[in-house]
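FAQ: What does the model actually see?

It sees only this:
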Amino acid sequence: MCSIWPAKKSPRWICRRSLVRYLGRRYRLKIDRYQAYKEIKLTRGFFHIQVKDSGSPEQIKQMMDSWYADKTAMKFQESFDRCWQRFNDLAAAKPLMVIRRMKKRWSSLSKNGRLTLNTDLIQAPKDYIDYVITHELCHLRFHDHGPNFCRLLEHMMPDWERRISMV
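And it is asked to produce this:
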């Protein structure tokens, strides 16, 4: 099977006991409402969120969304660059990478060469993110999921089946 599985719902970040996913791991929130500044740090298995006394669940969610957006752009670019190296010999133009929230897909590749990645994909392990990007890059050559596509995917990423079992 060579298809991309649909994205799952985003986590909620509204209480101290909430668990959030990042790069395949789950982290518990630790909210400190006594600090004079706002900050998020990921250390020792926890998201440490420092907010002013009045930090509402909505403010915490906005902080997490902003943190995720920054990390998502950086991590997806690293993954895209790593995966693109395998495709140098394909004689195709490098797609433009776009990151946005999608309801039903992890990713897509348009006919005009735009690779769109779902923001929620940042919750998956790095190996799975690499698989999703490699899968889409294979569509530069074959636009369907036929046998030629699967052979190219197998050639570019021999362990793709192990990677899709991670999510």
